[in-house]
Amino acid sequence: MTWSGRPFAWGLWLGAIALCTAVVLPQAAVAGIGNSSCPRGAVAIEPGSSIQEMVDRVGDGGVFCLKNGIHRAQVVRPRQGQRFYGEGRTILDGSRPVTGFTREGRFWVARGPLLRGPRHGECRLTAPTCNLPEALFIDGSPLLRVSSKGSVESGQFYVDYANEGIYFVDDPTNRSVEVTAAVFAFKSAATDVSISNVIVEKYANGAQQGAIHAREGARWTIEHCEVRLNSGTGITIGTGSSVRDCDIHHNGQMGIGGHGRAILIEQNRIWSNNTRGFNPDWEAGGAKIAESDGVTFRGNYVHDNDGPGLWCDIDCRNVLYEGNRVEDNRHIGIFHEISFKAVIRNNMVRHNGSGKRRWFWGADIVVAASQNVDVTDNTLTVAAGACGIMLIDQGRRADDGREYKTRDNTVRANEMTFEGAPCAGGASDTRSSDPNFSIIADGNNRFDGNTYRVPRSSGPHRFVWGRDVTDWDGFRRKGLERNGRFILLDRRAAH
User: Fold this and answer.
1) Residue 229 resides in a domain
2) How far apart are CA 85 and CA 77, in angstroms?
């Protein structure tokens, strides 16, 4: 498998997901670098020149043309109203070339000054170095960092800070070797910044930090960009900001993150993020926005991320998930968690949750500890062993002690095709003494008018309401799906 003309050793990453499945992009997901040229009058910046020096010289409102080629280890702090355009082959590369190798026993060693970023974030047990942001690349492929020199094997490296040495065993002769040398491409608290038509790669940003980091700014516009191979999150955004028509993939922790008001994530391809093996229950995967009001996820193609696909968490309000294609993510496809009013509609959601099959979490759409959510007109294909649409309550509490409630949620007019036994409904995991103990049944939650297509021979049904797991008839006896349809298929038709 090749990508951008260079081979990638994806199998070197612990916790990484399979990447070789062919996919056909929907029209909405054609995203990434465009062919547009820089606007007339933009200040030209050639590779090798300091972008920051020109940013400071021109000042607020400046318009810049980042010329084609590699802008190596640039760190840019935009000022108010500045606009940055690439020419189509413009790359901001956060690494530096490594030369002058020596041999020490079985190791090749590269010496020189090294970054040492702060350790942040929770890793899987199988990937204990995920939260160390420095990275090494051979022929464009990231190597896996290990925690001891003696354990280094092919495709791996070890960093000895005391002696400023990087140890690895793959022969670097006549190959491109690079090590991360900068922690972000763009970052500032400026307002009204725009970035368009650039590739941003190989930055040693930490977890929850973006290689393009706009979280503390406002009204940033990021469009027609490709953001890849960075150590933390690809792009983070804040109030009034948008990410449109971007290709965001193979970042170490997550594709897009952020918080604020009036956020738009539209027409992007967000795929194969969390290559480093962060724990998705902490934070990893496709796109996650938190503590926000007025978030729109529209027309994105979100697939093969090691974590949830689209996720709004912690007091999100007025969220719209619309017209997205969300498939093959290892955790929940669309996840609305400890939050409030949202609409989840007209999405195609398929084969999510393979890495989270315990209890009812391995689902395509989950509304957890949230209220006033309308889940409607979605089309789901549910893998064997997974659940379709789930409401879940755990008696979750905010820092101020108030309890989130799974109530006033409506699930209607969705089409679900199951490849195994059906699984859907509302599940409670609280003690009898908890005020939320009966919130699923007593909290005005409704399932109605949905269609369930199920293989004729599929195993026990799991229609759950509160703590009661039942079959289709039992589900209807609880007052649910009075207008729903349950259709038995032969196994071939279910796939």
Assistant:
1) yes
2) 15
Give CA–CA dist 437/131, Å, rounded: 38
pLDDT at 28: 40
| CATH number where 394 lies | 2.160.20.10
CA 387/CA 469 separation, integer angstroms: 13
Distance CA 490, CA 495 (A): 9
Q: Does 225 share its domain with 114? A: no
Q: What is the residue range of 174's domain?
A: 98-180
Domain limit, last residue, from 154, 180, 206: 180
Distance separating alpha carbons of residues 311 and 319, to the nearest angstrom: 10
Are 140 and 264 within one domain? no
Q: Which residues of the chain have pLDDT under 50?
A: 1-29, 494-495
What are the C-alpha distances in Å from 20 to residues 8, 17, 29, 64, 272? 11, 9, 18, 38, 11
SS3 category, 241: coil
Residue 40 lies inside a defined structural domain of this protein: no
The neighbouring-strand residues paired with 187 are 213
Q: What is the pLDDT of residue 193?
A: 98
One domain for residues 146 and 295: no
Chain mean position to CA 358: 21
Q: Do 390 and 359 fall within a single domain?
A: yes
Q: What is the pTM of this model?
A: 0.92
Rounded Cα gap, residues 237 and 454, in angstroms:
41
Q: Which of 120, 130, 241 is nearest to 189 (CA)?
A: 241
Cα(452)–Cα(19) distance, rounded to whole angstroms? 30
Specify if 222 maps to a domain. yes
Helix (H, G, I), strand (E, B) or coil at 193: coil
**Would you state the pLDDT for residue 491?**
58
Structure confidence at residue 493 (pLDDT):
52
Pair (386, 428) in one structural domain: yes
Task: Indicate whether 264 and 359 sit together in one domain.
Answer: yes
Strand partners, 44: 65
- Separation CA 117–CA 252 (nearest Å): 14
Nearest to 298 by CA among 323, 315, 332: 323
For residue 29, give both structure tokens.
């997901």
- Do residue 231 and residue 268 come from a single domain? yes
CA dihedral 177, 183, 185, 188 (to 10 degrees): 180
Q: Are residues 321 and 420 in the same domain?
A: yes
Which residues make Cβ contacts (< 8 Å) with residue 236, sequence separation at least 6? 208, 209, 210, 212, 213, 214, 215, 256, 257, 258
Q: What was the pLDDT predicted at 30?
A: 55
Distance CA 29, CA 446 (A): 32
Which pLDDT does position 115 carry in this prediction?
83
From 128, 155, 180, the end of a domain falls on 180
Q: How many residues does the chain have?
A: 495
Q: Which two tokens stand for residue 172?
A: 């670097």
Number of domains in the chain: 2
Read off the tokens for 340: 């409030």
Give the model's pLDDT for residue 261: 98
